[in-house]
């Protein structure tokens, strides 16, 4: 038996982890733009990366380390993705780390921002050399890694086991646009003091990514930089596999839901539940088709319960389906029922009222099997176009 409790504060509370965010001049107006995570002991680390074939330099740099390496330092910059920068992008990372005025072991870099520009090495080195490695300010870190995010994203949990022992796990993340992870622009850094066996770290990340980061979409685009990093310093000397897997799922789910709700310009967060599909793969395929559909997203923006767009997307997804078995509902309001037209004025008004909420669920019961999957998405409106049209300017 175990208990998982959300606790106030951020992952800086975990013994041995330090973090902060500063202004290094990458963003205008002295905005925070450079951050770090430091551990006073070496950490085991595991990662999930984007499946975009053009992975950014920081991801390639990470993968050049030997298998099962340990680290004690993570450097994160915003404003510049260091992607599509060729060999120089990796060389620039090595230059930065070799220029630090403190010792770090197998340092990791993570970047987010505009693709195709070289890193401003001098600014990053100057900023990184001003870090106070004993700082504990995860809030500043969460602000420093933001790009088009409207707000910072973080969470913290404590896990208590039956024998009285406990461990903590928390995360900081960024992500609001280019969100259609396919692993895991999104970054997520998870820290814990749980004594997790190395083999369990990768298994837990992969398993939980399926229903969290891999189940969300803002705009259907997969970034070159998507990264999920899990660091453990093992200082609690406590571990329970079932408890850890569930706690990690909660952390990843929290971060994923914050990203969806913060979709660039988004006002609505929707869960797309596909039930009773012929296979798990088909349930997932249909749910993700709904979360990615621009027509569905714009209907949500207009608070229009146009179930025809939902049905059309299900049919176009290519899964096994039958309109005489299909049931579509907005929360508990059924708008289509196994071939029966129930969409009268009263039903439409009730469904429209559901869409006036900030969060809601659209359920599609396929009626041909027993497999379910839920994907998560948001609306798409004028602000998304404005943000991305002006992204580089």
From TrEMBL:
Residues flagged as site, Involved in the stabilization of negative charge on the oxyanion by the formation of the oxyanion hole: 112-113
Organism: Malaciobacter halophilus
Complex and partners: Heterotetramer of two alpha and two beta chains.
Protein name: Arginine biosynthesis bifunctional protein ArgJ
Function: Catalyzes two activities which are involved in the cyclic version of arginine biosynthesis: the synthesis of N-acetylglutamate from glutamate and acetyl-CoA as the acetyl donor, and of ornithine by transacetylation between N(2)-acetylornithine and glutamate.
CDD domains in the cross-refs: OAT (cd02152)
Family per record: Belongs to the ArgJ family.
Coiled-coil spans in chain: none
Keywords: Acyltransferase, Amino-acid biosynthesis, Arginine biosynthesis, Autocatalytic cleavage, Cytoplasm, Multifunctional enzyme, Transferase
Subcellular localization: Cytoplasm
Annotated active site: 185
Record-level Gene Ontology MF annotations: L-glutamate N-acetyltransferase activity; L-glutamate N-acetyltransferase activity, acting on acetyl-L-ornithine as donor
Record site: Cleavage: 184-185
Lineage, uppermost ranks: Bacteria, Pseudomonadati, Campylobacterota, Epsilonproteobacteria, Campylobacterales
Enzyme Commission identifier(s): 2.3.1.35, 2.3.1.1
UniProt cross-references to Pfam families, sorted A to Z: ArgJ
């Amino acid at each position: 038996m175990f208990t998982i409790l959300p606790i106030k504060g951020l992952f800086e509370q975990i013994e041995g982890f330090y973090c902060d965010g500063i202004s290094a001049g990458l963003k205008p107006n002295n905005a925070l733009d450079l951050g770090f995570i430091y551990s006073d002991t070496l950490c085991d680390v595991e990662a999930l990366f984007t499946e975009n074939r053009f992975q950014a330099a920081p991801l390639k740099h990470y993968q050049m380390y030997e298998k099962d390496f340990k680290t004690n330092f993570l450097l994160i910059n915003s404003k510049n993705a260091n992607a599509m920068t060729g060999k120089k992008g990796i060389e620039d990372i090595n230059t930065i780390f070799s220029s630090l005025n403190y010792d770090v072991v197998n340092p990791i870099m993570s970047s987010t921002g505009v693709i195709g520009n070289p890193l401003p090495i001098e600014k990053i080195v100057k900023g990184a050399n001003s870090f106070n490695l004993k700082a504990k300010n995860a809030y500043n870190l969460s602000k420093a890694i933001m790009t088009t995010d409207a707000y910072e994203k973080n969470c913290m949990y404590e896990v208590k086991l039956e024998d009285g022992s406990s461990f903590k796990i928390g995360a900081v993340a960024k992500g609001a646009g280019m969100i259609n992870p396919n692993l895991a622009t999104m970054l997520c850094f998870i820290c814990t003091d749980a004594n997790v066996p190395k083999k369990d770290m990768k298994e837990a990340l992969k398993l939980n990514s399926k229903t969290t980061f891999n189940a969300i979409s803002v705009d259907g685009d997969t970034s070159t930089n998507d990264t999920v990093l899990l660091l453990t310093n093992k200082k609690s000397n406590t571990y329970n596999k079932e408890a850890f897997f569930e706690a990690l799922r909660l952390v990843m789910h929290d971060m994923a839901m914050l990203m969806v709700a913060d979709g660039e310009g988004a006002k609505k967060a929707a869960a797309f539940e596909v039930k009773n599909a012929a296979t798990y793969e088909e349930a997932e395929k249909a749910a993700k088709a709904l979360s990615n559909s621009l027509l569905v997203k714009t209907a949500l923006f207009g608070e229009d319960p146009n179930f025809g767009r939902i049905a059309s997307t299900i049919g176009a997804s290519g899964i096994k389906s039958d309109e005489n078995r299909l049931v579509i509902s907005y929360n508990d309001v059924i708008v289509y029922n196994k071939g029966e037209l129930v969409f009268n004025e009263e039903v439409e008004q009730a469904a429209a009222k559901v869409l006036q909420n900030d969060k809601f669920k659209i359920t599609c019961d396929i009626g041909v099997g027993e497999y379910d999957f839920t994907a998560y998405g948001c609306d798409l409106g004028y602000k998304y176009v404005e943000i991305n049209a002006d992204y580089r300017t």
